[in-house]
């Protein structure tokens, strides 16, 4: 038994890798939606019960080549759909800081395993905040890289245009070391064509005079008082380190959350069509193929059913223009707002989550309440820019994260500012 | 979509059928409130302009169309519920 067993942080334990290389000696947990050859990979779903991928994801192959020891597959909201890790078919994961609370999601098992000290680092995936939210809620570091920096080959897709694989660790330096290994071009993912870089070396360089933009839209009424206080202290720390802090306005962010959910659900409805019980996962019974597919897919949990159905609805004839077209236009406006602000500033700062971790069970029956918690993280995925959550302190004895966001492929600068903050705090 | 109609359980059942997700009547009823809350929230998008120009800073990544090593037939079939003579067995078409 280890701390993670009590927390239900792992779905499957394994022992893979562990040779020589830049990550020799590092123990790593891998989110259960990232393919690991011969090790059961369920995406937290009954639909993939028993599925053993016949190949490794590129990021897993690279971890193994670098000598990391992969010790298990971490629990997650089913197919990444959730903000609490409670929608997993394997039961909820608990927050190691306070076990009455959720660890955040959807990469909650990864965050809990790192925070409890059971692994040195973990891989999560971030479609709308799924690395940054649990990092913030468990008090660890989590990076969502630029879209296109890290290969998605072998990541079991939910919303291709938004999702990224990202590292999590207890400090910025370890996060950067894992990024060094997993980043960079991959012929098997046409969207991944960027060079990797020496991020770990870059984080220790001085930050210089940094300009930090704080959008009014991300620190407004939805933000808890305690979270706001911790965030203001964090801005004070950045100022003490020589940063200039500026308030800015990014009006498109008011539309970002709705645009995100329309796009993510739309993509989910087509992506998850492949789970029909024929090529993988338990098969269905019934009269004819439609009945048999619908029977196999009855194994989806409620949140996945909700998103697949809402996505189907939003993309159906007569509604497409009202939802999907509008959402794509809002997405273009969000991108432009980030570009304009990051032209004038080095990073955008906000609280990662507007609230402290929910109590277990608190948000599960109210989908909209759960979605609203993603207000500060989802705009980043629409824009495709890199963003990191670093521990900023506590409110009501629960962890609060500082979210820093930079321009496309500016991970070096981003991690340097994050490291500067981590050292000064 | 100013006049968005309220979704009822029949609408949920219709979408479930399109999405090939089997629901019981009770389950369909259980989704009604959440659907209406979320679709109501999506009305935030009503006043997004229709004439936003999409960026075109994307470029295609192409490669020569030459066969490369991939999964063997046996590996590709290794997780299937049913196989026969090297093929997947699917439900009957009727």
Characterise this structure.
The complex is a heterodimer of chains A (425) and B (94). Chain A has 425 residues and is α/β, with parallel strands linked by helices. Chain A has one domain (3-250, 335-424): Amidase signature (AS) enzymes (Alpha-Beta Complex), CATH 3.90.1300.10. Helix content of chain A is 35%, strand content 16%. Chain A is built from 14 helices and eleven strands. In chain A, strands 1-3-2-4-6-5-10-11-9-7-8 form an eleven-stranded mixed beta sheet, with helices on both faces. Chain B has 94 residues and is mainly α. Chain B has a domain at 9-47: Glu-tRNAGln amidotransferase C subunit, N-terminal domain (Histone, subunit A), CATH 1.10.20.60. Helix content of chain B is 35%, strand content 4%. A two-stranded antiparallel ribbon of chain B has the order 1-2. In chain B, strand 1 (83-84) and strand 2 form a beta hairpin. The longest helix of chain B is centred in the middle third of the chain and has 18 residues, at 25-42. The mean pLDDT of chain B is 90. The chains are: A alpha/beta (425), B mainly alpha (94). At the A-B interface, helix 8, helix 9, helix 10, helix 11 and helix 12 of A face helix 1 and helix 2 of B.
Q: What's the level 1 CATH class of chain A?
A: Alpha Beta
Oligomer designation: heterodimer
DSSP summary: helix tally of chain A = 14
User: Which pair of protein chains has the largest interface, and what are the residue counts?
Assistant: A-B, 66 and 48 residues
SSE string of chain A: HEEHEHEHEEHHEHEHHHHEHHEEH
Low-pLDDT windows of residues of chain A: none
Topology (SSEs and partners):
The complex is a heterodimer of chains A (425) and B (94).
Chain A: H1 3-7, E1 10-17, E2 27-31, H2 58-65, E3 69-74, H3 108-115, E4 121-126, H4 132-138, E5 141-144, E6 164-169, H5 172-182, H6 199-202, E7 211-215, H7 225-240, E8 244-248, H8 253-271, H9 289-296, H10 302-314, H11 320-344, E9 347-351, H12 367-372, H13 378-383, E10 387-395, E11 398-405, H14 411-424
Parallel strand pairs in A: 2-3, 2-4, 7-8, 7-9
Antiparallel strand pairs in A: 1-3, 4-6, 5-6, 5-10, 9-11, 10-11
Chain B: H1 9-18, H2 25-42, H3 73-77, E1 83-84, E2 87-88
Antiparallel strand pairs in B: 1-2
């Amino acid at each position: 038994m280890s701390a993670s067993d009590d927390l239900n942080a792992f779905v499957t334990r394994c022992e893979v890798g562990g040779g020589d290389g830049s990550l020799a000696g590092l123990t790593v947990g891998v989110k259960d939606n990232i393919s690991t050859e011969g090790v059961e990979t369920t995406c937290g779903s009954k639909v993939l019960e028993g599925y053993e991928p016949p190949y490794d994801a590129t990021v897993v192959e690279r971890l193994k080549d670098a000598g990391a020891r992969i010790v298990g597959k971490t629990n997650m909201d089913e197919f990444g759909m959730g903000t609490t890790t409670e929608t997993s078919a394997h039961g909820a994961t608990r927050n190691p800081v306070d076990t009455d609370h959720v660890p955040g999601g959807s990469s909650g098992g990864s965050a809990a395993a790192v925070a409890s000290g059971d692994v040195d680092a973990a891989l999560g995936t971030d479609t709308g905040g799924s690395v940054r939210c649990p990092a913030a809620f468990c008090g660890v570091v989590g990076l969502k890289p630029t879209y296109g920096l890290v290969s998605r080959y072998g990541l079991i897709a939910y919303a291709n245009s938004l999702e990224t694989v990202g590292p999590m660790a207890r400090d910025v330096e370890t996060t950067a070391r894992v990024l060094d290994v997993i980043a960079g071009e991959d012929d098997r993912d046409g969207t991944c064509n960027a060079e990797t870089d020496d991020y770990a070396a870059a984080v220790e360089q001085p930050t210089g005079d940094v300009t930090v933009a704080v959008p009014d839209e991300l620190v407004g009424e939805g933000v808890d008082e305690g979270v706001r206080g911790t965030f203001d202290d964090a801005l004070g720390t950045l100022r003490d380190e020589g940063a200039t802090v500026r308030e800015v306005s990014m009006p498109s962010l008011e539309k970002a959350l709705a645009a995100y959910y329309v796009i993510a659900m739309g993509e989910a409805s087509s992506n998850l069509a492949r789970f029909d019980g024929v090529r993988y996962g338990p098969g269905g019974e019934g009269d004819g193929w439609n009945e048999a597919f619908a029977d196999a897919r009855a194994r989806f949990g409620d949140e996945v059913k909700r998103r697949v159905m809402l996505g189907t609805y939003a993309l159906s004839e007569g509604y497409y223009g009202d939802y999907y077209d509008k959402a794509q236009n809002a997405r273009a406006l969000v991108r432009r707002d980030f570009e304009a602000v990051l032209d004038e500033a080095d990073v955008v700062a906000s609280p990662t989550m507007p609230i402290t971790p929910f109590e277990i069970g608190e948000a599960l029956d109210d989908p909209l309440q759960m979605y609203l918690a993603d207000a500060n993280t989802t705009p980043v995925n629409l824009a495709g820019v890199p963003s990191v959550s670093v521990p900023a302190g506590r409110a009501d004895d629960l962890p609060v994260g500082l979210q820093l966001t930079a321009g496309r492929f500016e991970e070096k600068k981003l991690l340097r500012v994050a490291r500067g903050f981590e050292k000064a705090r | 979509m100013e006049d968005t109609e309220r979704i009822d359980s029949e609408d949920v059942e219709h979408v479930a059928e399109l999405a090939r997700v089997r629901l019981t009547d009770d389950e369909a009823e259980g989704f009604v409130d959440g659907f209406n809350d979320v679709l109501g929230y999506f009305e935030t998008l009503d006043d997004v302009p229709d004439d936003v120009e999409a960026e075109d800073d994307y470029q295609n990544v192409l490669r020569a169309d030459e066969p490369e090593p991939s999964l063997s037939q046996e590996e590709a079939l290794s997780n299937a519920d049913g196989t026969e003579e090297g093929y997947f067995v699917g439900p009957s078409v009727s």
